[in-house]
Design a protein that fits this description.
alpha+beta; six-stranded mixed beta sheet; 16 strands; single chain
């Protein structure tokens, strides 16, 4: 049931504080009658300087605050953030409401992919919501954790307007970005998260809510015949049909990786609200080795 949304691509180069918004929407698309929604994996964003798998300085946090401003989104789903206080080092609480998963600290430690002397810290999911946006929080989707304290929960909010929009932020299991190799220990875990998402989708359809799921899927959903997306898109009825809002475009964040793993996936009713030409990938405007995260944010606008 996969359908790419017919988005007319509007090309606009932007150089804000040394950053770039690849194929950004025109100014007319940021009118008050639309809401811009983004997702950003912030790569091990710690609360304190100099710790975690991506140790940062005051200057690094300041740079990420500039990126957040240049992204110009009303709602940002974030991933790989240690605590709410860590998120607020980037998303100023005077400008944003910040909510983060209620998942208990897992106690997870260990090495950071061979980086000597560094130890992994808590990675959680949440939202930064621009002040003035009318929203409410729904219970976290704890079931995405599959009872494993190291797996992330989903964070669920409703953005209220003339057309309310239910948003679920996720960060799914890594290590199974394509195929379905059950000899691999990661694929069975990822595919066990799919029924949890399907139930959430079916619950939204049952209550006639427009919805989108956004975040780091750790999966190349755009790949032809992707088995994970195909399984998820089998939910019934028609309102459960899913749209990948990247509209078939390839990623440009890092030339080594042409496929997105960060997606905003819209249900049928939400897909009707997408502002044509509004999908964008924010690419920082600097060489890859200077990127403040190993992921680039993606965003799209919905009519509010």
């Amino acid at each position: 049931m996969f359908k790419a949304h017919a988005l007319a691509l509007a090309v606009l180069a932007a150089g804000i504080s040394g950053c770039a918004l690849n194929k950004a929407p025109s100014a007319s698309l940021t009118a008050a009658k639309s809401i811009r929604v983004a997702t950003w994996n912030m790569e091990h964003l710690a609360e304190a300087n100099g710790v975690g798998c991506r140790p940062r300085t005051d200057a690094d946090y300041a740079r990420m605050r500039s990126d957040a401003a240049a992204l110009n989104a009303d709602v940002i789903a974030f991933q790989e953030v240690e605590t709410k206080a860590a998120a607020e080092r980037v998303f100023d609480p005077a400008l944003y409401d910040v909510v983060i998963s209620g998942r208990p600290m897992s106690g997870r430690g260990g090495a950071c992919n061979g980086k000597s002397g560094l130890s992994i810290r808590q990675q959680d999911v949440g939202f930064a919501i621009r002040k003035g946006v009318d929203w409410s929080r729904n219970p976290d989707v704890q079931a995405l954790g599959l009872g494993n304290p190291d797996l992330r929960w989903g964070v669920d909010i409703t953005v209220r307007g003339s057309k309310p929009l239910r948003l679920l932020a996720v960060h799914l299991k890594s290590g199974c970005n394509i195929g379905r190799d059950f000899a691999d220990t990661d694929c069975p875990v990822l595919f066990s998260q799919e029924p949890v998402l399907k139930k959430w989708i079916e619950d939204r359809v049952r209550t006639s809510e427009a919805f989108a799921i956004l975040g780091d899927w750790n999966r190349r959903l755009s790949s032809a015949g992707d088995q994970f997306f195909a399984a998820l898109d089998r939910a019934q009825p028609k309102a459960a049909d899913l749209t990948l809002t990247n509209d078939g475009r390839s990623a440009t964040c890092n030339p080594r990786y042409r496929d997105f793993i960060d997606y905003i996936v819209a249900g049928a009713d939400a897909a009707k609200l997408i502002v044509p030409g509004s999908f964008a990938e924010y690419t920082y405007g600097v060489p890859v080795e200077q990127h403040p995260s190993d992921h680039c944010p993606v965003s799209v606008s919905f009519r509010a």
